[in-house]
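seq:
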Amino acid sequence: MVTAALRSAAPADGLHLQVKGLGHAFTLGKDSLPVLQDIDLTLLPGESVGLLGPSGCGKSTLLRLIAGLEPPASGELLGDGEPIVAPAPSRILVFQDPTLYPWRTVWNNVALGLQTRGLLAGHRERVDQALAMVGLGEFSGAYPRQLSGGMAQRAALARALVNEPRLLLLDEPLGKLDSLTRIAMQGELIRLRQRQRYSSLLVTHDVEEALLLCDRVLVLSSRPARILAELKVERAYPRHRDDPLLVELRQRALELLGQGSDW
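struct:
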């Protein structure tokens, strides 16, 4: 359960992200494999956008490009109007696997970003605050092997939040959790974003999850990915799975993904 530990801290202002005419391809020997094609996307400060699409269509690649982990083959990536050319602590990528270091305690895993930037000595309280915010304050001295799957993913979120990101890039962060833990974590993600006001881009294969968590959902084609449609989820939080609008949008998304007849 997310606590109110950071209510006294000033929430981060979300990043204004612009993706213009983005294209990308992988080089495989002498061949080029197109992955993304003419992607145009605007993410307003504090907004959450979901990305749906077939497996392998390039969703995760898009997040890596926005994170600055590699340059795109073509097009522009802008954060608050400035070109994105390298990784930055204001843009944090959270993966499906928590990727915690097993020899470090939960506290030391969360502190890693501050430590590598030389900021830990003056900001140790931020580690405690981040852990408290995701409900892991009592487990700061535990090791990853002592955590459940949901707790490990909370630790990964705390490791991201300790950097006070303005854009959180979420690559199927709940994909390996059991259904009950996943539902609980969905609620926590909503509350975290409402409190901290960061922008977020969520990759998921769960249509319902995208509609529950995001202000807009973009449906991508198969590789090379193009944006097929934008679905606006005009509902306040918290949302309910049986809301007629969400049911309608889910059917529309599944039809776009070629699965409409199965539901």
